[in-house]
Design a protein that fits this description.
two-stranded antiparallel sheet, Rossmann fold, nine-stranded mixed sheet, alpha/beta
Length: 361
């Protein structure tokens, strides 16, 4: 983890009816709508070309321009599909392609959607098949912000997209990037943060550590075994505290160098002020079953929103059973969860909440 695109394909595959060469080569008819489709794309990033998938909704004809969304992935090495297998202290027993599912829902609601492989995900770590170079220890959170801005700029060039109606949707760490993206890309219409932490990462890690310690204690795990299980987590928390104090003398920790961690902490420190200075509408969505980013973070976003001059354009939405992976666990007592209680789809109210906000703004 780092804690927490490509050639333009010559083919277009209808999402609703499969692929056939006849359908691909036949030009659209003026009296027949263009069906929803996807295509692999490449666009210029700040350092190298980024690759991803563009999903296009049904359109009346080839002159129709639609609103668009760029999806910004969370922490770690994540492909364009953002495949997650659980959340903090909980595994699902299956892989959930979060962004692939969300892109499908938003495309069905009339939005063009771009999702792309993060620069931390490539052949070098068996995360994706792109030809990205392996990241260096000099990578900072600013690089991920710049990649997101490049994705937005790419969307403005597409003839199918209404360049005046492009929004960004960030998940987890990607959610915390949203205010900075809005600051750097004035053309972005609005921003949405899905399970995005408000506090700096060192405070979030410490809160996660205490949460897992409480869970293990409630389960009857001895304090000695608990501390053994949490050793790496505790070492990360200590290292971040030392970085904050300027006394850290170790090497990479938690899968990232000190340079990255310091940039992520700085972003968390800056976000409260950014919230009050960016002018675009904002929506923060949190989940009641989220063990990575608790609902208290949503409360913090809400309090910060209330201080903004355009507070009427700032909204929050809490979804009771939603996990950090954006699916739903129907069993409220975590000690009684069975496989059938864990949803294989996104929370049913997630996409509608996003779409309502986007259409309102």
């Amino acid at each position: 983890m780092e804690y927490c695109a490509l050639f333009l394909a010559a083919w277009v595959c209808p999402l609703v009816s499969g692929c056939s060469s006849d359908a691909i080569n036949e030009p659209p008819s003026k009296d027949r709508p263009i069906l929803a489709a996807y295509r692999d794309v490449s666009f210029s990033g700040p350092d190298f070309d980024l690759v991803g998938t563009l999903s296009l909704p049904d359109r009346a004809d080839d002159t129709t321009r639609v609103p668009a969304v760029v999806l910004i992935g969370g922490s770690g090495a994540l492909s364009r599909d953002e495949v997650l297998r659980g959340q903090l202290a909980m595994t699902f027993g299956f892989a959930l392609p979060v962004f692939k599912l969300l892109a499908s829902d938003l495309t069905a609601s009339g939005f063009a959607v771009l999702r792309y492989d993060k620069r931390s995900c490539g052949v070098f770590n068996s995360c994706a098949t792109n030809d990205y170079p392996a990241p260096t220890d000099e990578v900072t959170i600013d690089d991920f912000v710049a990649d997101a801005v490049a994705a937005v700029q790419y969307m403005t060039t597409l003839p199918e997209v209404d360049a005046s109606r492009i929004s960004v949707v960030g998940h987890s760490e990607g959610g915390s990037l949203v205010p900075k993206i809005l600051e750097r890309a004035a053309m972005v219409r609005s921003g949405i943060m899905l399970s995005g932490p408000y506090r700096p990462i060192d405070e979030i890690i410490e809160a996660q550590l205490q949460f897992v310690r409480e869970i293990l204690t409630q389960e009857g795990v001895s304090s000695e075994t608990t501390e053994e299980e949490l050793q790496s987590f505790s070492e990360l928390s200590v290292a971040l505290n030392e970085m904050r104090a300027g006394t850290y003398e170790g090497g990479p920790v938690g899968g990232a160098a000190e340079t990255f961690w310091l940039s992520l902490m700085r972003l968390g420190d800056e976000n409260p002020n950014l919230i009050s200075t960016v002018t675009q509408p904002l929506l923060a969505i949190g989940g009641g079953y989220d063990w990575n980013v608790p609902l208290s973070e949503l409360d913090a976003w809400h309090a910060s929103f209330a201080l903004a001059s355009n507070s009427m354009d700032r909204q929050i939405d809490g979804l009771d059973c939603m996990t950090h992976a954006l699916n739903c666990i129907s069993q409220p007592k975590y000690t009684q969860i069975t496989p059938s209680d864990i949803g294989h789809e996104l929370h049913p109210e997630l996409a509608p909440s996003i779409v309502r906000f986007l259409m309102d703004h």
